[in-house]
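::Encoded backbone::
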Amino acid sequence: LLGQILDHWFESEPLKATLATDAVIGAMASPHTPGSGYVLLHHVMGELEGRRGAWGYVAGGMGALSHAIAQAAAARGAHIFAEKAVCHVLLGRAGEARGVVLQDGTEVRSKLVLSNASPQITFLELIPQEQLPKDFVQRIRQLDTRSPVTKINVAVDRLPSFLAAPSARDGQPLPHHQCSIHLNCEGTQLLHQAFTEAAHGHPSSRPMIELCIPSVLDPGLAPPGCHVVSLFTQYTPSVLAGGRCWDEQARNTYADTVFDCIEDYAPGFKASVIGRDILTPPDLERIFGLPGGNIFHGGMSLDQLYFARPVPSYSGYRSPIPGLYLCGSGAHPGGGVMGAAGRNAAQVAVKDFRHL
């Protein structure tokens, strides 16, 4: 349990709760849920430019990272088809992968196919079910993809001024504006209460909020004097109590709750808002192909990690379809912007390719 780990090392409740957010981020779990300690480890085990446990912003926004990878691939001869949805994986006579078919009917033939889509999309939508073992399909269908995340992107005309650390008179950013700001984290019990509400189908009345202002470090993201604020919030169920869906009213009601909370810490925040974009779990699934809105392509619980990710006997990036590999967050070691699953999968694919 994460709570036991934090209690062993720390006494301060605000500190414990702030650290606890990295143990439940993207997970429909509470700090008191067994296995939550691993998710914290997952978020701090890496390094950035030699600094262990450090995180960073991507200059130009997260899309700039994809662009850099694309440029590196193209420089080595890769052909990239943007805005070309894959309809299904093309199979040979022996059931092996032989390329992909795009929605416009174009066939792209290849000896190997690597998919960084989720296991659900890869195996339940892109492969004919009769080509896969029934027990494998059943396990993929049973993967826990619950997501508590609602992401809110906000445009503001000035930096938020927090009661705990008021902004400078000239409006220039202060050190805390460059960091991840955690709200509603005065105690781990608050996080547990927020989780409990969502577990019963109700968006948290006092949600966990991680607030970042990337435009402070990357001014090109917003006009002079203005900023973009990224709100990563929990907990929101995919389906609301009574089977209700996330309509516009429910979406805005929850966002208003989030903004009211921020206003308590930074009076004047709501008046600074120019626009907002609200992405609930169903929105994250529809727009980004995240199953259930889960940012990790599936829960990072102990039963879905290591040799069991995505399912036992297929944790080594290969699949029941010869020549088809899983290289996204649904593969070992899981989610996060680190490229480990892709690198590992590429090494396995290259090894196999040499024997074709």
